[in-house]
Amino acid sequence: MTLLLLDTTFLIDTERGATELDDLIGDDDDVAIAAITLAELTVGVELAEARQHAKRRSFVDEIAASIPILPYDQGVAVRHASLLVAVRRTGRPRGAHDLIIAATAAAAGRTVVSADRRAFDGLPGVDALDFRSSSD
What we know:
The chain has helices at 8-15, 21-24, 35-47, 50-66, 74-90, 96-108, 131-134; strands spanning 3-6, 30-34, 69-70, 111-114, 127-130. By secondary structure, it is of the alpha/beta class. It is built from seven helices and five strands, in the order βααβααβααββα.
C-alpha cells in the first residue's frame, strides 16, 4: 500500500478528463488531500463561469465527500516551518500552497502526486511523483 497525497494539479486534470484516478492509483493505495487543496479547488468553483459553476461545485463536493482531508495541524505547521527555512537557505523559492501541501505530505508520510514535481524536488523529507510523466 502506498500513501498518496493528491495535489490540486492532479485533481484538476481528473476533472477535465485528462487523467483517470484508476490510471495511477492502485486498489491498495491510500489517498488523501491537504486542506489547502480543498481551498484551491473551491476558489476554482467560485471563479468559474456560470456555465461551469455547477459542474465544478459537484466535482469538489464529490472529492470532499470521498477523499480524506488532512488538516493543517501542529505536525504540519512544524514541517511547514522547516520547509520554509530550507527554501530560504537554498534561495529557491516555492509557492506558498505547494509548501503547505509538501508539509502535509511529509507530516503524514505520504507521497505527493502532482503535475509539477519540480515544485517539490529537493524539499527535505518530501517525496513526489509526476503523474503525467508516469503515464508516458
